[in-house]
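Entry: YfhL family 4Fe-4S dicluster ferredoxin
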Amino acid sequence: MALRILDDCINCDMCEPECPNGAIALGEAIYEIDSAKCTECVGHYDKPQCVRACPIACIAPDPERVEDDAGLLAKYLSLYPQ
């Protein structure tokens, strides 16, 4: 499933540069993840880099955007056609 940034985000700027898909951007109050671009780093890394970089662990799976590994890989392939 795509990830989301929770309301306790402190806008530390650690996650945004780590996203290989450019899915993270500063929203009106906190950073936000564009679910259309979030592949949980499938195709790039073994684990989501934003989760690894977040110092307060405020990035979690988005229950409204359930996707399996095959769906995440398909999204990656649509973002980076070969």
